[in-house]
Fold this protein.
Amino acid sequence: MCHDAHMGRQLPWLIAMPLAVVGILAGHSVGYWAAVPDAHEREHVLASSGHGYLHYAPLVLALCGALAALGFVAQALAAFRGRETAGGTRIKLVAALAPVAFLLQELIERYMHDGHLHWQLVVSAPFLLGLATQVPFALLAAAIAFALATAAQQVAQAVRAARRPRPRGTALTFLSWLSVDLPPAPVLARGYTGRGPPLLA
C-alpha cells in the first residue's frame, strides 16, 4: 500500500516534466528569434553554438506530448483506484527550475560543440532574451500540467460515480409510501357469523 501511494505521488512528474521540456524549447526558440531576427544569420548562430539538434525538435515535441498523455491516463487510473496523486508542489518546482535548466542547456550545448565552457554567454543577447522568455513559458507549462492533473482527478471521480449502484426507482418508492396498515375488518363484514353460544339441553 505504501508503495502504491508513493507511485501515485510520483505520477505528476510524468505530466510536468514533458511539458517543462516543451516550455524550455519554446522559450529557447523565441529568445533566439527575438535576438537574431534574420533567419539565415540565426541559423548560422545556432549551428556554430551546438544547436544542430534542434532539427529533431518536432520529434522531441511529439515524444513529450505522448509522455504527457500517458501521464494523464496513468494519473486518472491511479485516482480511480483511490491512490493519492496530489502533485501541485512538484509542478511548481518544475516551473521554478526552468531557468536553471535553460542555463545548463546552453552551457552543455557549447561544451559538446567545442569542448569549452563559454561562461561569457550569460551576457549575450540570445541567452538573456531566452532566459527572459523561460519564465512565462514555464508558468504556462505549469498551468497546463496542473490543469491536466486536475482533469485526470475529475475524470476518475466521474467514472467512479457512474459505476456506483443506482438507487431503486422512484415509482416503487412512491408506492411504498402509500402502503398503510389497515385495522382488522369486523367479523360480520367478512361474510360469515361468529360461533354462537352452546345450546342448552
Summary: Confidence is low (pLDDT under 50) at residues 1-8, 169-175. Residues 125-162 form the longest helix (38 residues). The CA atoms of residues 80 and 156 lie 5 Å apart.
